[in-house]
């Protein structure tokens, strides 16, 4: 089988999984998030070495609080409430919103800033995918049952094939993490470990087709060397 993939890394930011980031300071358990870093780093390096485009999705908020979920929704689960005064995190252009050092983007990687769960919502992501000719998205990152799953569902419904790497996604809620993986496997695409995917590629069960270089005008990485 031949595919034209991109690797997507969702919300691996200081605010969520960095030591001394907002979630860490709030007292949330970030151990599940940090546990996937070694496998994720290995996976990123593997695909980068083969010239597969690497995308990082960043959840951001304005300092003013203009785009907080609380400003939009009257009906909102308590776990999704964003408090301007005491739980305002990942503010645009701050260290908290940046990608963790362990997997920091390279200059040729791409960064998509989003304000809602799905990487497709009100972003340039799909425009870039179409320009590249990509047809498959390999999903990694956090949180499995929120932003990763929301993005995977949107990808499937927009016509992209979905591969989710079970050892490169995580949640602070283990039961919801497992349920999300089951849902993706049953209804939306493949769920496998990073080693299983790499073995399929190395054994040529999956052939990675070259992805066209995008026009310069569409390349706006924020990464540093």
Descriptive report:
- The chain has 225 residues and is of the alpha/beta class.
- The chain has helices spanning 14-17, 22-26, 31-35, 37-49, 69-72, 125-132, 144-157, 174-187, 194-202; strands spanning 2-3, 5-10, 54-59, 110-114, 136-142, 161-170, 189-192, 207-208.
- The chain has a domain at 2-14 and 29-59 and 108-218: Isochorismatase-like (Rossmann fold), CATH 3.40.50.
- The protein has 9 helices and 8 strands.
- The protein has a 6-stranded parallel beta sheet, sandwiched between helices.
- α5 links the parallel β3 (54-59) and β4 (110-114).
- α7 packs parallel to α8 (174-187).
- The radius of gyration is 17 Å and the shape is globular.
- 38% of the residues are buried.
In the CATH classification, which architecture of the domain at 2-14 and 29-59 and 108-218 applies?
A: 3-Layer(aba) Sandwich
Unreliable stretches (pLDDT < 50, length at least 5) are 212-225
CATH class of the domain at 2-14 and 29-59 and 108-218: Alpha Beta
SS elements, strand count = 8
Radius of gyration, CA atoms, in whole angstroms: 17 Å
Share of helix among residues? 25-40%
Sequence of secondary-structure elements: EEHHHHEHEHEHEHEHE
Quaternary assembly: single chain
Structural class: alpha/beta
CATH homologous superfamily (4th level) name of the domain at 2-14 and 29-59 and 108-218: Isochorismatase-like
Shape: globular
Q: Remind me, CATH topology of the domain at 2-14 and 29-59 and 108-218? A: Rossmann fold
Total helix count?
A: 9
Key structural traits:
225 residues, Rossmann fold, single chain, alpha/beta, 6-stranded parallel β-sheet, 9 helices
